[in-house]
Amino acid sequence: MTDEFPLDPEVLHLNHAGVAPWPRRTVAAVTRFAEENARLGSRRYPAWLATERRLRERLARLIGAAPHDIALVKSTSEALSIIAHGLRWQPGENVVGILQEFPSNRIVWESLAPRGVGLRQLDLARSEAPEDDLLALCDAHTRLVAVSSVQYARGLRLDLERLGAGCRLRGIHLCVDAIQSLGALPFDLGRCTADFVVADGHKWLLGPEGVALLYVAPALREALDLHQFGWHMVAERGDFERPDWRAAPDATRFECGSPNMLGIHALEASLSLLEEIGIERVADAIGERTARLIALVDRHGFELLSPRAAARRAGIVTFRVPGADQPALYEALMGHGVLCAARGGGVRFSPHFYTREETLVRAMELAAALAGGQVRRRAQDNPAR
Description:
Elements: E1 12-13, H1 24-40, H2 45-63, E2 70-73, H3 76-84, E3 94-98, H4 104-110, E4 118-122, H5 130-137, E5 142-148, H6 160-170, E6 173-177, H7 189-192, E7 196-200, E8 212-216, H8 261-277, H9 279-299, E9 303-304, E10 317-320, H10 326-335, E11 338-339, E12 341-343, E13 346-349, H11 357-381
Parallel strand pairs: 1-11, 3-4, 3-5, 5-6, 6-7
Antiparallel strand pairs: 2-8, 7-8, 9-10, 10-13, 12-13
Helix pairs in contact: 1-8, 2-8, 3-4, 5-6, 9-11
């Protein structure tokens, strides 16, 4: 399946936790869609809707839901905003989350402060049992626990089954930002019992920006107030002259307007690849590559910032080079064609199932050489006196 990714030989792509490259089939699907649109306009719109249905089915299988439970929205941030500002909060209630969250999963909960909703945050740097510590932060006024399945900077993987069981026992909703695990790890709603799941398609799902998954437990759909309205979110869609309307009973109630058909064609094609391989095999392959990266981190004498235990990691390996300027090292790696990220106080590598062994080795050798050059220059500029 490496033939699906015709990356330039000078590019070492280790940024699937950021923005992933598209597979060949995704490029082909977008090209066909564009050419068809140019030649035929919307003549084949029913076929486009069939692609949309297939995408919902694939996303539903990916998390263990039903297709009518899947809403297609623009981004993780939009999905979280639909949840945060749809719930009917009471002053004095609170949300429990993690201090080291990506802004999308922090700002949205902070925005509830004018409504009297507090945010309690766990500092992962002081926690050895994050699931237990998150639950310990909950009290009688906690309405929701909002977490990322995998922390974006250093890659800590949460035990969602354990956390979900604790939330259920306390009558607290669980909201999971799964953008750093969907497409990299299996996800099972039946085991983690999340009430809300959100994820954009441009990372591990190998799709485009601009199309995201929103899952809301069926029992909670009507408990969310709607703040976006339009022709697409009504039950009687297509009956344009109807004077009265009601929100659709399924997840399309959260889709106010026309769908992103271009993005839908792209993401559906990307998910077809992941389904052909199988998410278990994908996860195993990613696990092998992260283990190899950790071995290379140790061999070069770097400091591992990501979890070492296999059960606590996913596809992210973050490290720092002692004595080096970490932001400058990141810039130098990018300048040498290593696509990575500056995160968590170090450099973040995130390989996918197709990443070649030589890519990992070359990237780490470059990191060692570039960092070594930094240290030597610093020593020359500041000789011992």
